[in-house]
């Protein structure tokens, strides 16, 4: 079991997981059932626990999870206990049916259909709910039947993202491992230098070797027999620290050969996390972010500059610490200029585009989101700020920046719900947009006038991605040419 899996399992036992028993929907129904049994109105219960009725309504409808102090107050007001409220069993057969339908409507398969969910009320008959649930289960079955080998990777990725969400993207075991590495070399503060990272490698019994003939399918190669770490000599000196740390992560985290694609993805996430946790040490980073929050000036640019890291790494690291250490729920996304979502994380309720299996990566981002509108801005020096009103509910604020890679331009964006924007620099922006996706009329379908004029005359040749029909990379380390790697090690021994 990896460090990330251990941490996720521990947190899942303490948090409400929407995919498992004891989820927010079941809790909400149990609270509502006890309230109505005691003859209390929503307003009376809200007054008893000193909360707004709208907040309790969101909890009863499973749209918000109460924190422990509020959960204790609710239990006392309802003459119950926290344990009784958290029982993973619906209070009645009708409630179980409502929960199943609500869960189905919030799932990725239902959202991918673009159908407006129905409001489940007392007036909705059991037969109607059973019909909706039966149709959903059949559509879900058909999707599973169509799943081929690439779906294995997507399912593993979806499960991993779920674990990250449950944990608030914070893994204390990896934080401790990073702190121990820095302590071992006497780190005292400031940006972590490349010399410090080299010393960490030496402490672990490895020497660094920069070569010009790295196997094309690798970022680094570790020779465990001879205690060597090989990296490309083409790496910019400033960016060499992260590849070194990612290579060392396999040693620090005790990684073994991946058993499956899920193992491979978890190991990659752990390696990236450890690199960020070393380059932006937890206590120093939290101190800066806490000070910035107090001044209502949280900024990814300031974090980037303080620790001399890339903007993307600063944004990633912020998501690690935002929920656990700052009490902020956030989302992060990296999108290619074509509109393809490359990476995504959220625990603030934003609904990323996804496929029927719930996988974000590879989906198309709405043209009206900050991650897309930033590409049309002529000013690439300053960050782009924008509010977006979502069709799925609520307004989100994002800060975004465009960066270059060999694959082209991509945007890196960090965002929060409207109520949390008060802590961030850029909240005063007047830039605002609306998104109605997944409705095609939002940004994917041309206007009626253009469609009538061109649909019979246009015949474009698709620039088909080379990976469209490609099989999932195989091997112990997917996509790595083992013959090339072994020949490389032989030549350098």
TrEMBL record:
GO terms for cellular component: cytosol. Keywords: DNA-binding. SUPFAM superfamilies: lambda repressor-like DNA-binding domains (SSF47413). It comes from the Bacteria. Gene3D superfamilies: lambda repressor-like DNA-binding domains. Residues 31-85 form the HTH cro/C1-type domain. GO terms for molecular function: DNA binding; DNA-binding transcription factor activity. Belongs to the short-chain fatty acyl-CoA assimilation regulator (ScfR) family. This is XRE family transcriptional regulator.
């Amino acid at each position: 079991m990896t460090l990330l899996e251990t941490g996720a399992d521990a947190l899942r036992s303490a948090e409400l997981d929407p995919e498992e028993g004891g989820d927010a929907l079941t809790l909400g129904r149990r609270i509502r059932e006890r309230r109505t049994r005691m003859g209390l109105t929503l307003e009376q219960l809200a007054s008893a626990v000193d909360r707004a009725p709208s907040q309790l309504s969101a909890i009863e409808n499973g749209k918000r999870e109460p924190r422990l102090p509020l959960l204790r107050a609710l239990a006392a007001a309802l003459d119950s206990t926290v344990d009784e409220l958290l029982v993973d069993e619906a209070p009645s057969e009708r409630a179980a049916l409502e929960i199943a339908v609500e869960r189905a409507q919030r799932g990725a398969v239902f959202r991918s259909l673009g159908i407006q969910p129905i409001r489940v009320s007392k007036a909705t008959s059991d037969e109607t709910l059973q019909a909706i649930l039966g149709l959903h289960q059949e559509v879900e079955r058909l999707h599973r039947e169509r799943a081929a080998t690439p779906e294995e990777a997507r399912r593993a990725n979806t499960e991993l993202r779920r674990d990250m969400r449950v944990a608030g993207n914070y893994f204390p075991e990896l934080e401790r491992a990073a702190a121990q590495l820095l302590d071992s070399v006497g780190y005292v503060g400031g940006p972590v230098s490349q010399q410090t990272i080299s010393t960490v490698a030496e402490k672990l019994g490895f020497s660094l070797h920069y070569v010009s003939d790295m196997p094309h399918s690798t970022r680094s190669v570790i020779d465990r027999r001879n205690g060597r770490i090989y990296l490309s000599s083409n790496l910019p000196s400033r960016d060499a620290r992260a590849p070194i740390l990612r290579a060392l992560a396999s040693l620090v985290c005790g990684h073994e050969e991946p058993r499956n694609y899920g193992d491979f993805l978890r190991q990659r996430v752990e390696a990236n996390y450890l690199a960020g946790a070393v380059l932006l040490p937890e206590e120093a980073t939290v101190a800066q972010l806490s000070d910035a929050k107090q001044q209502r000036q949280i900024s990814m640019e300031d974090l980037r500059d303080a620790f001399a890291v890339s903007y993307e790494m600063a944004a990633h690291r912020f998501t690690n610490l935002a929920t656990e250490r700052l009490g902020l729920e956030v989302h992060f996304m990296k999108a290619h200029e074509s509109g393809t979502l490359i990476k995504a994380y959220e625990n603030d309720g934003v609904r990323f585009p996804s496929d029927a299996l719930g996988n974000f990566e590879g989906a198309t981002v709405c043209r009206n989101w900050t991650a897309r509108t930033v590409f049309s801005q002529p000013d690439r020096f300053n960050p782009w700020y924008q509010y977006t009103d979502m069709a799925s509910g609520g307004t989100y604020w994002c800060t975004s920046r465009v960066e270059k890679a060999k694959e082209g331009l991509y945007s890196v964006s960090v965002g929060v719900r409207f109520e949390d924007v008060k802590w961030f620099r850029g909240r005063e922006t007047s830039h605002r947009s609306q998104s109605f996706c997944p409705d095609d009329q939002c940004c994917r379908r041309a206007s009626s006038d253009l469609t009538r004029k061109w649909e019979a005359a246009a015949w474009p040749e698709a620039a088909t991605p080379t990976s469209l029909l490609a099989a999932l990379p195989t091997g112990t380390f997917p996509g790595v040419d083992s013959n090339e790697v072994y020949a490389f090690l032989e030549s350098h021994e």
